[in-house]
Design a protein that fits this description.
heterodimer; A: alpha+beta; Ribosomal Protein S5, domain 2; 13 helices; 12% strand; disordered N terminus; B: alpha/beta; Rossmann fold; five-stranded parallel β-sheet; two-stranded antiparallel ribbon; globular; ribonucleoprotein (chain A)
Amino acid sequence: MATPCVSCGAAAFYRLFLGGRVSLTRRQGVWKAGAVELQTGTGFQILRLRHTTGVTTKKNVAALRRETYTVDFIKKQIEEFNIGKRHLANMMGEDPETFTQEDIDRAIAYLFPSGLFEKQARPVMKHPEQIFPKQRAIQWGEDGRPFHFLFYTGKQSYYSLMHEAYGKLLEAEKRQNQLQAKGLFSEKTETKDLIGSRWLIKEELEEMLVEKLSDQDYAQFIRLLERLLTLHCGAEEEFVQRFRKSVTIQSKKHLIEPVQYDEQGMAFSTSEGKRKSAKAEAVVYEHGSGRIKVNGIDYLLYFPVTQDREQLMFPFHFLDRLGKHDTTCTVSGGGRSSQAGAIRLAVARALCSFVTEEEVEWMRQAGLLTADPRVRERKKPGQEGARRKFTWKKR
Amino acid sequence: MLKRVTRLVPRACQLDPGHFLHGGPQAPQSLAARLDDQVPDENPRAGSHPSEDDPVRTFNEACLMVRRPALELLRHLDDTNFAHPAVRYVLYGEKGTGKTLSLCHVVHFCAKRDWLIVHVPDAHLWVKSSRGLLRSAYSRRRFDQPVEAANWLKSFKTANERFLSQIKIQETYMWNKRESTEKGRPLGEVVEQGLTRVKNATDAVGIVLKELKSQSCSGAFRLLVAVDGVNALWGRTTLKREDKSLMAPEELALVHSLRKMVRNDWHGGAVVLALSQTGSLFTPRMACLPQELLGKEGFDALDPFVPILVSNYSPEEFESCIQYYLENSWLQHEKAHTEEGKKELLFLSDANPGQLERLCAYL
């Protein structure tokens, strides 16, 4: 807008900004929205700034940096946590001395029930070390001299770790050479713990060292550790184990339903299944001729669509037991496809009790024993459906 | 499934149980080109529409499976005492189990034995949408359906050519001021009249049925009345009068005459009926029992009858059906020959003939 020259320096400052920034950019800079009133005075004009909406979006430079917690702050948090733990134990009526973290979790879940799906968004009370990220203390002393000898490499913990590992490797090689020279070298067996464990991933290693790593650094480190492992020395095992994490085997978590026996001595097994909003309960008899009854109706009449019957067929066909079991199921809720899926899951789970462990593992890998987690996605405001946006009009 | 069953041209075969009588696994809309000299009256229908999925043309023959319900019926028919009033047999069962084809089997059997056949392929067609509805000349209250009546007369004519010249009518019928059929003329003339003057077709049908009923008691011939979808006669219609109000089935002349036919106040023949939920109006999908499908009125009208349940395939029947498909190279899937393939088909179709046929259609 055409602004006449005003003597006031401050006003000039405002004018600059008003003239320059018209578009709303949140990127940089400060702009003050204001309606400027031009008042024609007697001879000269005064710009009077009037704030209508005082929106100040200043880029908070400090907030973008990682929050630094001082050591005192962390100590205070730990004290508060301990006191809070004792209070909580008193509230729950338990002994404050033997109040473990699981008890705390249970108490918090009881006192603050949350319906949020995201588990990490629920209220949590943990030791401050698990909540506040690990931070590095000041690396240099009062005279400005750094403590660590590798400080000027930039990644002191990483390089010191590599140095240590390489040192151990050299020692192990030296020992092996000595043994070989003496002739006492014996072939050791493979370490068994490689199977149930895995190397730490890069993020976990970064967290451990409190330092950023690059992919090549990480790869180099893992290669060094593997080379160390090939030398089979007992002393280094613990060192290497620090960097391995155990992996739980999935299938062990399955409970296999016990086989029950009814009045005639016929063996059967019951289990439940769910899909979307359909719940099903299936009773599979061990000996039969392949008849299936759903809610008292023959499955051909209950599921006139071939696709649903194929879903029912899947567990039996997979285990090659098509005409061998009789089944009775009850199902409610959902639509025809989700009822079929629910029955399929229930039948697969029930069949687990008649079948060997290996076949249970095959079924798990085929996806027969996993409940389908897909549910209907919520419709969002501003969109027509869950994903579909309104028709975009150029003008 | 079966839309319009007309006639089956049989190959000469014995009727042993389990034997594959060459009829048709699906409704033959047109007949095979092979004519049997034992059954000269069954000729290919000129007026029917052969569809491209017609297995009669695909397999070049019309085959039926001989099954227990049909055999039971045939045994009963063999033992009928023609002095007694006509016994009514009702074939009922789940959808797709083979009621209509059992009916066809019976019709074919009786045709071979030289009975006179009154066969209504699907009574549902008469109560559903028909374009030409006229006020009946004979009775003020009722409505004629010229198109359906003409079609039926055509099929009747081709089926029973021999009898048309033999049977003489016993009354004079006046069609209009100029035309009439005298007493003593052969029945064929009435049929011709109905075919040429389509407006009088419904009345012609009524006359034919009346004559046949009265004359079957005389013993000159045996009469078989075979109606498929008989629950249409006592159900509801979707036809509307001129003032857009729904019609009841009684107001249709064809339905009226057929109902009279199905009553058991005559002797010298038998009545075989098949229920059908597939084409019926306003009945729930799960209904398959006579009580549910016929309604109270129909049940009372048909009572007493001999119910015959038609169920899914037994294991042997299933096996023979699969063998038939394999022999005719209908199943092209490589797994269809194997045991597992057969088990899969058995499970998926639950030994239901209709379902099995639909599944094998794209294998």
